[in-house]
Amino acid sequence: MARLADYFVLVAFGPHPRGSGEGQGQILQRFPEKDWEDNPFPQGIELFCQPSGWQLCPERNPPTFFVAVLTDINSERHYCACLTFWEPAEPTQEAVCTEDAPEREEEVDEGGPVRLSPAAPGPPGQLFAPKTLVLVSRLDHAEVFRNSLGLIYTIHVEGLNVGLENVIGNLLTCIIPLAGGSQRTISLGAGDRQVIQTPLADSLPISRCSVALLFRQLGITNVLSLFCAALTEHKVLFLSRSYQRLSDACRGLLALLFPLRYSFTYVPILPAQLLEVLSTPTPFIIGVNAAFQAETQELLDVIIADLDGGTVTVPECVHIPSLPEPLQSQTHSVLSMVLDPDLELADLAFPPPTTSTSSLKMQDKELRAVFLRLFAQLLQGYRWCLHMVRIHPEPVIRFHKAAFLGQRGLVEDDFLMKVLEGMAFAGFVSERGVPYRPTDLFDELVAHEVARMRADENHPQRVLRHVKELAEQLYKNENPYPAVAMHKVQRPGEASHLQRVPRPFPRLDEGMVQWIVDQATAKMQGAPPAVKAERRTTVPSGPPMTAILERSSGLHGNSARRLEVVRNCISYVFEGKMLEAKKLLPAVLRALKGRAARRCLAQELHLHVQQNRAVLDHQQFDFVVRMMNCCLQDCTSLDEHGIAAALLPLVTAFCRKLSPGVTQFAYSCVQEHVVWSTPQFWEAMFYGDVQTHIRALYLEPAEDRDPSQLGEAPAQDERSALDVASEQRRLWPTLSREKQQELVQKEESTVFSQAIHYANRMSYLLLPLDSSKSRLLRERAGLGDLESASNSLVTNSMAGSVAESYDTESGFEDAETCDVAGAVVRFINRFVDKVCTESGVTSDHLKGLHVMVPDIVQMHIETLEAVHRESKRLPPIQKPKLLRPRLLPGEECVLDGLRVYLLPDGREEGAGGSGGGPALLPAEGAIFLTTYRVIFTGMPADPLVGEQVVVRSFPVAALTKEKRISVQTPVDQLLQDGLQLRSCTFQLLKMAFDEEVGSDSAELFRKQLHKLRYPPDVRGTFAFALGSAHTPGRPARTTKDKGPSFRTLSRNLVKNAKKTIGRQYITRKKYNPPSWEHRGQPPPEDQEDEISVSEELEPSTLTPSSALKPSDRMTMNSLVERACCRDYQRLGLGTLSSSLSRAKSEPFRISPVNRMYAICRSYPGLLIVPQSVQDNALQRVSRCYRQNRFPVVCWRSGRSKAVLLRSGGLHSKGVVGLFKAQNAPSPGQSQADSSSLEQEKYLQAVVSSMPRYADASGRNTLSGFSSAHMGSHVPSPRARVTTLSNPMAASASRRTAPRGKWGSVRASGRSGGLGADVGSRLAGRDMLSSPQANGAPPDPGFLRPHRAALYIIGDKAQLKGVRPDPLQQWELVPIEVFEARQVKASFKKLLKACVPGCPAAEPGPASFLRSLEDSEWLIQIHKLLQVSVLVVELLDSGSSVLVSLEDGWDITTQVVSLVQLLSDPFYRTLEGFRLLVEKEWLSFGHRFSHRGAHTLAGQSSGFTPVFLQFLDCVHQVHLQFPMEFEFSPFYLKFLGYHHASCRFQTFLLDSDYERIELGLLYEEKGERRGQQACRSVWEYVDRLSKRTPMFYNYMYAPEDTEVLRPYSNVSNLKVWDFYTEETLAEGPPYDWELAQGPPEPPEEERPDGGAPQSRRRVVWPCYDSRPRAQPDAISRLLEELQRLETELGRPPERWKDTWDRVKAAQRLEGRPDGRGIPSSLLVSSVPHHRRSLGVYLQEGPVGSTLSLSLDSDQSSSSTASGSRQAARRSTSTLYSQFQTAESENRSYEGTLYKKGAFMKPWKARWFVLDKTKHQLRYYDHRVDTECKGVIDLAEVEAVAPGTPTMGAPKTVDEKAFFDVKTTRRVYNFCAQDVPSAQQWVDQIQSCLSDA
């Protein structure tokens, strides 16, 4: 029961306190004057009585009535019914409006009679003031209020004889029921009678006609959008000129929202003074008078509904989500059927007579019924998603939003999502979720009518019938009985307001009204409370929910088959049929995109857990984890389908044993999913589990009590938690207090134990396996964000403080592991706070939990450490097995395997193209980053390929380009981030990251790769890091002879102690060396001065040794050991001997002028210069050349004695200036002139040093020849030339003119076409011989007549306009060369041609050849070979050549090296080639680090493969002359790979100077580092050659004619297979330790015990290493021999010994029968060989046929002895292993006694003198194969008679002793007798003189 009205108020117009034109409302009287206790008087009623403001009117308006709604602080609504009428204003009131009168405080005396006579009309200026009667009530009975206030007004106006006080007293004391459907007749004591009808159900809203009116005013679409806007919490504003209509519209909108209650601001009539409320940020429904429309214009986010105009305006920035289809369209059509039934019939030919339209009230209910149905459809099954968290003392209920959305199939639906997150729905859950309560129409509908609504969907008439039935019920709720009783209420007469009112509204007697009220109150207290008991029942749950629209998407349509696949795959996994499972896996992963399959997976796995099969082996574990990951990867953070929830118990069940006592659970492998870091997921899971346990709590006793009723037990079990809760709520009042306490306690402890359980579970899934790495995903996904977003979580302040104190005291701040731990603890603490506070856990328990959480986390971290440690021993989680790559000793993994797919890179073989066969790529595996390489290992994704392993790797230092790409993964066809890495070793890794690799991991990979690729300085490269890694604490060097020289040298180099100290520990330290400025550039000026000053202090004419200081002599020792020095001595270019007389007679000498690297930084320390030039002149000469690289001799022809010189290009003030100068220099010359003069002298000295040109007559130049292109051309009959034809422009040029010798070389341009001018320049030449085809060089004899003594090959651009002086003996040859940048560009194109990166549009050889041609790489090779052959010809004809191109370190080096290789057979041996590279490339300062971009500084310049281009040229020569090289083609590839790999220190840094600075140069001497990793590539080659003949060329049989002249035309060049071949089985084969795969089991011991299989195996072109799978015949025989020896138990002999022995035996056999049969073998084996074999074989001595086919030695005849005998004589090999039977191998041998080093005894040794290798070697005894030591004859200074010393053999004659003095020490020898001693001395002397 409730009061009909709480307050009656009289409000009148009063002046505004600030005296403005408007007035304000004043409360004149209110009854009762005291506030009710249960309902205080609402403030601000005056504003709402006149919402448009209090104003006076010039005429009397009719009375108005409307109901305003006020909401109090407790969100109770108060209905204010306002009846307003107008009275003539009093003069005081008028004054307010006519003028700004002073404020009036006194009240008007209302009681006094008005002075005007009743009949007299008001004066013309009369104004009327409003006065309002207000009823305030909590009930919404608008009609009763209208009647009651009308009655009071009527009594006043008509002057009825009724006391107003009585009427008002009765009104305030009237009590009526709230609901129940009863009628109550009331009378206010004025002869009136009213019937008040209460609704049947309190919960259903009363709408009267408001909904129907709203639809009439706005139309269907507009109302629907307003409905959606209100539900999704948007701001809605109604405009109308009628206040009553505003109230009705708002009421109607609220009625539509049932069963949800609107809980935001609701003001149907907003007063003008409060318009700023419209800019509030919260949602609202507000009505405003249309007069204020202008004020609402600037509201940007408010939806405005104009009731009068029928429009709804939605601002642009507001998006109202519409109802989900099909509900939107269904609702729309049903509404139109209700509102406009004639629409259906409008088109009928014979419309039915008339349809009865419903009354407005009925239509109103029908419209509401449509919306009620709509909600039933939307929220159908909502009770299945309620979680009962607590039942006692009060129910606590949570709604599982995600599950509801998921099961309804509306996850993506914006509308429902917003509704469920809204406040209204939260209220709905707490109000309607309660399981035991009164039910209403909606509960029935949603529980029982769902099936009917589903069935009716497509039958509009049935839908309409249902709507009408519901409308009936709604109508009956408002009007349960037909209105029998008639209202009887007096009303004023028509137009009564216009009649003169006798008096204003009287002042009422407060006392009397109060007395009436008090009496009624007293009576009420006496009467018993009429409480009508509510009928409470269990709320029906209805059928389980279904999707709102079954979307049968094609992708997962045939799901039964898919589920079968999933089930099969799982059963295969658990039965251990891994291969079967592997075949099904791709199908399963595709199927798992569907929800059903994911559920099926969870169920199947659950069954296996129940069957106790949770402990898996590694493969099973990986399969299960992979499938789980695939399920989880599509889970959103909400987990709406409950997949993560279903898997959560499984990931803590499945496990594998890593080692005894260490078990890894599946959760450690499925953590990378966003769902685990979503608090809402954990809350839903927690509440679900709590519900299960609480339900069990109340089910158990029933089963305990009644064990006999077994039949009913299942029924008991099937009761839902809500049913159980409902039962418990029903019983609750009947329980005793103790019992109640006990139940509450049980429930609380259940929740508490679940909270502990969840703290554990969360720590499992949030702590990463390797807790030292911060979980990047986690930071992104929300652990980090939640720190700030705590306002969304309910946090208990006490709990918060506990958490804080934990954070501060745990001492976790510093360690990084604990960043993770700390974040996880905070995350769990927040979760615990929220759920425990919501589910009523006691504060003590909560405190306990907060203490427990850090311990749980810490304990789990400790467990994980063991698991992590053990799991690292396994390969990481495998999809297919992740194969760990084999690493080199010292190579360390920087980033462990990131799972990737390796995609085809455009090479056809890998994709199964040209080679046929299945595709090896795409492959699935992982990418590893080590300190040395980037390695991919994996398996082909194509299941047909079988268990092949695919490996592709390249050295980090070889990376040339890295770019991000986006690609589809081959298995799942998902678009993934990828990376494409291209390397200069012709490997390309094009990979897509697997979905499990986070973008942060990929980014980390890129950053680490970049850091390793470009270390800040060269010491960061692998070669340095490796060396230091292996000797971490190497003590300071104390080697006897090495230390001082090294230290002295560094002291002299940089006179700075600190740097020296710095360097000494730098080489030991492992990584980050102290900063050391990069010395690629010339050093600063002051340093140069410092060195040059020290230079000038020394005597000006430095003779080779006498003038050197002792410390310098040590430096000299080191320098002498360098390769160049050994080579100079071999070539007879001078020695550093003490016998000066001999040195003087030589034309050239070794000058130590640069030993401090003062003249030229990039030159070696010792240089060959003409004997006549003094050292101090060299400084000045050097200034004329770029980089100070002045001309020095690098090679001398043994036969013609012509020399090859090299230098940098000329500065303009050099030779060019010299040639341009016409006058002779005057005495007072400038510095530049003097240096030019020096230079002229220098060149003259070079010319004079050549024996044939010592007379230096000027006539023998080729001035006529050269002047041809200088313009002043006098044809000279002597200068005859022949042409090297140019391949490209041959025909054209031949037509225009015969071309000169230089024509083709000078030919510029990429195409190689000649300009016409070149042709004309060289016109008028008599040709000696017609150009031969193929670019073959013509007869060598053609260059003999009258040549210049010296040709300078220079850059055409430099030598432009130069006029040679006819007196000079040198001649300029300008040629056009390409620059380094052109090499770089060409190489880039070559890379793209060989490794395209993506499959070609038109596969086939044509596209490859086209791109190869575009690259112009072969054209550059052609030019190099052409220039080199030219120089070879000149040298061979006796002219010397100076190569002076660019800076003298790129193309110069290429040409000079090639010339020496072609001219001198020594350089075609293994040792010779090493010497050549050391001398010309390393010592002469080719900038390896700069060209290879080894460091950060070189990053911008990029990779320029100058050395690789040289190797390619050597390879081209090797192809044409396969019998001339001791090394195999593999050797060239090996060098090509490792010059870019940074594995060895050999090819690091830019010059000897830099190497000395870093202490690299002399390190290998003195200290032998045992089995440490090789730092020098040569050392590595030596070691390997002892084991395997891979670098050796069996066809090596050098020809006597030393000079090779290869064809250079592009048509004769082949693409080097180094660029195109690849071995996917093991990666590049150049790291020998890695390339040796595991040995295959011998055929006899088959693991399956079957008979031995055949030895056949499939060799794939790009997969297997063909040389290893199918070795050549000789290698095969050697291998076989080794195997047999092993089987016989003999120590296997080294391959070289065997080979030498076989060869010797063959030679012996071959002697009797002269030229034997094997020559045929040779001819067939070398079909493309260019030499005329027949002639050659006849020339050789007896038996040379065999020596040709089998001669394997390094028989490089020493250039000094031209005799053929020496050429035939085989050298000792590089590998120094010998058999005594082969006496022919040694020049001289025998036993000598040798005195050991200091304090060591004499010992007899077997000595071998080898003239070819220029060595004296000694062995322990005659048959020993291991060489004990070597004395290099190049170092021998003298051989002299010796004297016996202590410990010498007693019986020997004194004259049998002799000493050999080398640059390092003196060796004491003793022969058996005097003659043999004499013989030894002679032999050694003759060796020395030969050199």
What are the salient characteristics of this protein?
1891 residues; alpha+beta; elongated; 7-stranded antiparallel β-sheet
Folded structure, characterized:
With 1891 residues, the chain is α+β, with helices and mostly antiparallel strands. The chain is built from 66 helices and 42 strands. The strands form 11 sheets. It has a 7-stranded antiparallel beta sheet with strand order 25-24-23-22-28-27-26. Strands 39-38-37-36-42-41-40 form a 7-stranded antiparallel beta sheet, covered by helices on one side. Helix 5 (210-218) packs across helix 7. The protein is elongated and about 170 Å long. About 20% of the residues have low confidence.
Distance between the termini: 132 Å
Question: Care to count the β-strands?
Answer: 42
Which consecutive residue ranges, at least 5 long each, have pLDDT under 50?
96-121, 550-557, 703-716, 774-782, 784-817, 1029-1111, 1138-1142, 1214-1232, 1254-1334, 1336-1345, 1564-1571, 1638-1653, ...
Q: Helix content range of the residues, please?
A: 40-55%
Radius of gyration, CA atoms, in whole angstroms: 53 Å
Structural class of the helix and strand makeup? alpha+beta
Count the DSSP helices.
66
Give the amount of beta strand, in percent. Answer: 5-15%
In which order are the strands of the major sheet placed? 25-24-23-22-28-27-26
Shape: elongated
What composes the largest sheet? 7 strands, antiparallel
Mean pLDDT: 75
Summarize the structure.
With 1891 residues, this protein is α+β, with helices and mostly antiparallel strands.
